[in-house]
Structures are given as C-alpha cells and as structure tokens.
Amino acid sequence: GEYEALEGVAHLDEVVLVDQSPIGRTPRSNPVTYIKAWGEVRELFARTPIARQRGYKPGHFSFNVKGGRCEECKGAGSVEVEMIFMADVYVPCEACGGARYKREVLDVKVRGLDISQVLELTVDEAIRFFIRERKLGKTLWQLQQVGLGYLRLGQPANTLSGGESQRLKVARELARVSGRKGRKLY
Predict the structure, then answer these.
(1) What is the maximal distance between C-alpha atoms in the chain?
(2) Bridge partners (DSSP) listed for residue 89
(3) pTM (whole model) above 0.85
(4) How many angstroms separate the CA atoms of 65 and 56, rounded?
(5) Distance (Å, rounded) from C-alpha 92 to C-alpha 75?
(6) What is the tens place of the pLDDT at every residue in 141-165?
C-alpha cells in the first residue's frame, strides 16, 4: 500500500516473499527436500555399515540422480500416462513398485526402515524417528510448528494446497534463520 516513510530499513538483512504459489511442479519435489533436510537423511543412510560396505555415498539415496534411484521412473515412484482428451494421470512405477529406489538400495536400513519407508513417515512420526539427529529434528520441528505435522516427508509438492505451500515456505525460512546466530525472522 501507500506510505509516507519507511524507517529502519537499514536493520533488515533481507525480505522474503511468502505466497501461496506452488513449491514444485514435479512429483520428486517434496516437503523434506524443500526445507533442505533430505541431505541429512541421505548422510545418515550412507553412514550405515551395509552402505559403507557396498560403497554407497549419500548420492545413492537421492531420487534425483543416477546411482540408487529407479531408472525406470527416474526416482519419481510413478510414471505419467498421457490421456488424449483428459488430464494426464500418474500410476505407480512397475519396476520399483513406487519405492523410487533400486532394490539393493532398499536393503540399507536405519532403525528398521529403508529410505523409501522414511519418505512415507509423517513429519510428526519423523521427529520421533530421528530423535537422536539433533539438526534434522530442529529442521523438521519447524514444519510441525507451522501446522504441517501431518504431511508425509515424500508427499509430492504438486499435491500440496496453496496454504500448505505457504506454510512450507515459512518453515523453510524459519529453519534457515534458526541455524544462524544473531539472526531473527519477523
């Protein structure tokens, strides 16, 4: 709106627009990748004895790059079926059964869950599951604080409502700022 003056601008580091626009258009984009917590999960899986024995690095637990992802669906877990006169539909990948990963990668488990099962956890469940992972827990906690504890970590971004997308953006900014000393978010 209109204003006469704006004072105190020198005290701001940055301004971030938090709107309801979608956070991603592909099934691979999801809440845990958007808030930059997926790297911590991949590191955790890469540190397991079986992963080290097999020479798996964190990249093997990414569904965005070759290595451990299912190459049939390119890590999406589903394939698009083009419909001539209707909207296209997504069906589970026949090769991986929707798991997104190669079978041998799914052999690697952390506390009894493979990487695909972790993606099925809700934020609330993941906070309890990763109770020992302090940095990861703090990031996931931001999602819970904005009321998104019910979301699944791997829920495709293109299925989120505008309000969910907006709250996810707020959580990402809170997580980003909380990791920096002396910074505050208003």
Answers:
(1) 66
(2) 81
(3) no
(4) 13
(5) 11
(6) 999 999 999 999 999 888 899 999 9
